[in-house]
Amino acid sequence: MANHKSAIKRHKQSQKRAARNRAAKTRIKNVVKAVRAAVLQKDKDTAAQALTAAMSVLDKAAGKGVIHWKKAARKISRLTKAVGSVE
User: Fold this and answer.
1) Among candidate residues 48, 47, 56, the one with its CA nearest the CA of residue 28
2) Rounded to 5 degrees, what are φ and ψ at 86?
3) Residue 62: which domain range?
4) In this predicted structure, what is the pLDDT of residue 2?
5) Residue 2: phi, psi to the nearest 5?
6) Where are the alpha helices (DSSP H) in 1-87?
7) In angstroms, rounded to a whole number, what is the distance separating the alpha carbons of residues 66 and 38?
8) What are the boundaries of the region Disordered?
9) Across all residues in the chain, what is the average pLDDT?
């Protein structure tokens, strides 16, 4: 454990940030999984709703620096393409 006051504070801050980032990444995985599941079920309405939610979560995560904005854009693009292919 850190000995200096500032090091102790930084350690606490990094733990809080890590927990927040972990939660955001888990949320991303869950919404992406929901979109992919809807696409596999060939349920266009559910897939479209799940895609809207996924886009929101991905954009928020990118805006907060949890993931890179280009990674978010890439995931959104691929999910949109998958939802578009559902008939």
Assistant:
1) 56
2) -75, 135
3) 5-84
4) 77
5) -70, 150
6) 5-40, 44-63, 69-84
7) 25
8) 1-26
9) 96
How many residues does the structure list for the chain? 87
Q: Would you give the distance in Å from CA 9 to the centre of its chain?
A: 28
Q: How many domains does the chain have?
A: 1
Residue 44 has pLDDT above 90, yes or no: yes
Count CB-CB contacts under 10 A for residue 79.
21
3-class DSSP assignment, residue 2: coil
CATH of the domain at 70: 1.20.58.110
1 against 65, higher pLDDT: 65
Q: How far apart are CA 29 and CA 54, in angstroms?
A: 9
Confidence band, pLDDT 50/70/90 cuts, at residue 87: confident
